[in-house]
Design goal:
Chain lengths: 197, 89
Amino acid sequence: MTGSSYRVFGIPMELQTARRKLVVGVYAVLFMFCVGSIVFARTAPIGYSWTIYATMAAAMLVFGGVGGLGSRYGLIKPFPNKPPRQEPVMVDAIRLQLAPMTAGTPDESSWRNDERELSRRDRAHYRAYPVVAGAFPVVLLLAEVGLKVAQGSLQLAWLTTTTLLQSIFSVALLETVLAMTLPAAIILWNEPDIDLG
Amino acid sequence: MGNDLYNRIAVLRAERNLSRQDLADALGINYQTVGFLERGDYNPSLTLALDLSAYFGLPVEAIFSRQPLRPLSEAVYGDSTAEKKRRAR
């Protein structure tokens, strides 16, 4: 299930309860940011958007699974099941002891999913799909309301255009985060305690 | 018929003094998967079952069964001991 690292912010993740707390925590923070983006839309929309993107990237790094940076640092092995690109030896970085990991080809067990892990991966995607697909109509509905407000065919005194656009952005962002992280989160949630002995 | 599949992997591994990591390395799987197999939480593919069979040098039916497995010692010696007792009478 997991990659080589079992710790997040120094907290061991072998226990299922610890992983479940992490999943709840990450999604709670993301949800708060998305709701907050609607509230703060008028005051600092751009800065707030970047904060959300940064949190989203952090979530993907912690969960892993999606590939890229997440494949190296995340708790879940990369889903593509392909070896990561071989990195050039960073001579200067090593000399200054800045390199976080040994350069070269990583251990095969850190990226290859065996048949059980592949079946878990596939099942997690299957379970995540209805949730991800179910969020699309919400985005469509909000976009439709936004169009009507912009065209003037619908007037809502309590809803400004900025708030409406920010709502569409927030829901679309949540949708993106769910699409990219939910399968990994489901695996982290379901895998029993890891026996390192 | 349920999905229950019983196995003797833990016993066979212990008999050979192998760690989960040793067995996992030999089979090209994650050591956590060995634990899942031993506990019966995961049913292996036919390929993996045959790999296990080849590794332990035993027929597949000696390792896996749809019915609960008897202890290995009883399976090997139990019948002959009972037969000897019957003959002695």
